[in-house]
Amino acid sequence: MNLDLKALEARHPAALPSAAPALRALNLQLAAGEQIAVIGPSGAGKTTLLQVLACAQPPTQGVLKLGGLDPWRLPVRALRRLRGQLFLAPQVPPLPPRQRVVTSVLAGRLPAMGLWASLRSLFYPSDIPAAYEALAHFDLGDKLFERVDRLSGGERQRVGLARALLAPASLWLIDEPLSALDPVRARMAMTALVDLARERQTTLVATLHQVDMALAHFPRIVGLRNGQLVFDLPAEQVSPEHLAHLYAQHAHALRGEALPLPRDEVAPAAPAPVVMHCR
């Protein structure tokens, strides 16, 4: 699916009407089957961009076209069909805690299923081998029949990514997929996601805090700051100067460090444990 954004403005989903736009005068074009990483400091507008592309919220100004269509001018049924071609993976996947992993992964197919088939799949998973194969790409094949509430945060993130492989989508929108993963699992997940998107000619837009991962796995990098496009370059042309400008006053984020608290906001040390004596 190709994307075309022209002079687009949008507000953060939770922002007040009086708040400044999270995206401002954004111009961006993607060809069908292209994979890009969107980087930038916190508050740059990365999540808002994915929400707009997922048709979860309309832009306040400008032009948005997905596959040549303006989603907000479509009839309700046509908009529903278009949304069925989009897959949004939020940073914290909304997985029901008591659900089995196999059911959560197969839920990626729900947009292509009728009502009765969807209800039946809740109790009788329809394609267990496909769910296993999707999970195996993210080293989770052994968790097929585990309950979601018994998974770690990183495992839940990878289940959310495995869903994408079964979705009938031509556009994957992935928000911070590595935040709960260790470096080895992060590289594995990123390699699987980008390689499979390229193999299937699926358009992929991923937001990342890990700049090194973005440069290593994506052919094209988009830098956002304060809702505006700072650069849009092939990965090999992104220089240290580009990154220093993008993360000016946010160097901790470029280094992958947490923002230090001011002296008067430093969390107090935990009290020493009290020794209990049983008599």
Structure description:
The chain is of the alpha/beta class. It has 10 helices and 9 strands. The chain has helices spanning 46-53, 76-83, 101-106, 115-123, 128-136, 153-166, 183-200, 211-217, 240-246, 251-254, and strands at 3-10, 23-30, 35-39, 61-66, 86-89, 171-175, 203-207, 220-225, 228-234. Strand 6, helix 7 and strand 7 (203-207) form a beta-alpha-beta unit. Helix 5 packs across helix 6 (153-166). The model is unreliable at 258-279 (pLDDT under 50).
Topology:
Blueprint (H helix, E strand, L loop, with lengths): L2 E8 L12 E8 L4 E5 L6 H8 L7 E6 L9 H8 L2 E4 L11 H6 L8 H9 L4 H9 L16 H14 L4 E5 L7 H18 L2 E5 L3 H7 L2 E6 L2 E7 L5 H7 L4 H4 L25
Parallel strand pairs: 3-7, 3-8, 5-6, 6-7
Antiparallel strand pairs: 1-2, 1-4, 8-9
Helix pairs in contact: 5-6
Defining traits:
32% helix, Rossmann fold, single chain, alpha/beta, 279 residues, 2 domains, 10 helices, 6-stranded mixed sheet, disordered C terminus, globular, 19% strand, 9 strands, 3-stranded antiparallel sheet
Rounded mean pLDDT is 87
Strand percentage, roughly?
A: 15-25%
Radius of gyration, in angstroms, nearest whole number = 21 Å
Strand arrangement in the largest pleated sheet: 5-6-7-3-8-9
Shape designation: globular
- Which architecture of the largest domain does the CATH hierarchy give at level 2? 3-Layer(aba) Sandwich
* Helix/sheet category: alpha/beta
**CA(first)-CA(last) distance:** 72 Å
User: CATH top level of the largest domain?
Assistant: Alpha Beta
SSE pattern:
EEEHEHEHHHHEHEHEEHH
